[in-house]
Amino acid sequence: MKLAIVGGGPAGLYLSVLLKRRDPSHDVTVYERNPEGSTYGWGVTYWAGLLGKLRAGDPESARAVADASVTWTDGVAIVRDERTVHRGDAGFGIGRRRMLALLADRARDLGVRIEFEHGVSGPDAPELADADLVVAADGVNSALREAYADHFGSEVTSGRNRYVWLGTTKVFDSFSFAFKETEHGWIWCYAYGFSGERSTCVVECSPETWTGLGLDALGEADSLNLLEKLFHDLLDGHELIGRDRAGEPAQWLTFRTLTNRVWHRGNLVLLGDAAHTTHYSIGAGTTLALEDALALADALDAPGRDLDTALTLYGKRRRAELVSAQSAARYSARWYENLPRYMSLEPARMFALLGQRHSPLLPHVPPQLYYRLDRAAGSLEPLRRLKRWLGPRVARAVHGRGR
């Protein structure tokens, strides 16, 4: 097959590795509009389960990614000025630029052509004319998808809160949170390491707090200075750094959740953020994009299956697998949008409910009562069964009302 992959993010590059590794006769080209090494963002997170899948897909790139990652097990939260620690499962961080470089090197070694600074304007671009398969891996603003938005059934909903993606020179050895109360409301930060020199910091707040603090009007330098003062105990005197991309200051955004009813049209198929997005607070975006690549490679690899059938099965499989993550992301975003509801709890209890924020029951039960019930369910099997039975039913009822 001749394959054109539009977008050189993790999903597009990893798909090119998988396809070329499984069949070296494939003619695979990746088109990336940005210069090599100029990617936006700081670090990305993933968990141990992803590494097993990557090893099965391509052991060499999995080993390179694992070797370049940092790990943590503890979660730390500073609420007002009180610090609390939660022991958890191992998590991993890796610089986005580092991950892309590793995947690009592996793809080239296998014979994939990668054309940087080569934008593709739309599905009628001449580069795509003779491709057997065109993969739209060009992100949430995908030009290929937007050309047929009605066919794909694309829907975008914007979150309420404002957030900004930053870096810092402090190297965190745990996944850390800080929640600060100001006269204009709460503002908080998620921070995690991704190398021996840098960490990621995502700062979030309500629109009222954002405007009350003047963050809507301040320039980047003044905004970073204000945030450094607010989170001084988290940062230990280290500086915050704007977006790691030349010429572009850090931007305050609202998160956009994208869904699509179908994922292919003819020989054009969606992958990664072009197909779906999930709120950053569950830390699953890169994992889900790489799992898309694995699923698409599996669908295309099945013998005797025509292209339309393969793409249909890929879309059905991934939409079904994404239901749980999309539900978790929806409830997680809502938890933060309703943060004041939980901030009267003592810090340890608030941190415990932070870990329960994916629960469909939590928004409908008073926080103190939910905490007590959850503690009791940990030791009483009948309550655990009731919680497992009731949660999905509440979720379906709420989803039905929303639709």
Helix content: 40-55%
State the end-to-end distance: 41 Å
**Average residue pLDDT:** 91
Strands across the major sheet, in which order? 3-5-4-10-11-12-9-13
Structural class: alpha/beta
Sketch the topology as an H/E string, one letter per element.
Answer: EHEEHHEEHEEHHEEEEEHHHEEEEHHHHH
Brief characterization of the structure:
The chain is α/β, with parallel strands linked by helices. Helix content is 41%, strand content 23%. The chain has helices at 10-22, 48-57, 59-67, 96-110, 143-146, 149-152, 207-212, 220-230, 232-235, 285-301, 307-337, 347-354, 367-377, 381-402; strands at 2-6, 27-32, 43-47, 70-79, 82-95, 113-116, 133-136, 155-158, 162-168, 175-182, 185-193, 199-205, 240-241, 256-259, 264-265, 268-270.
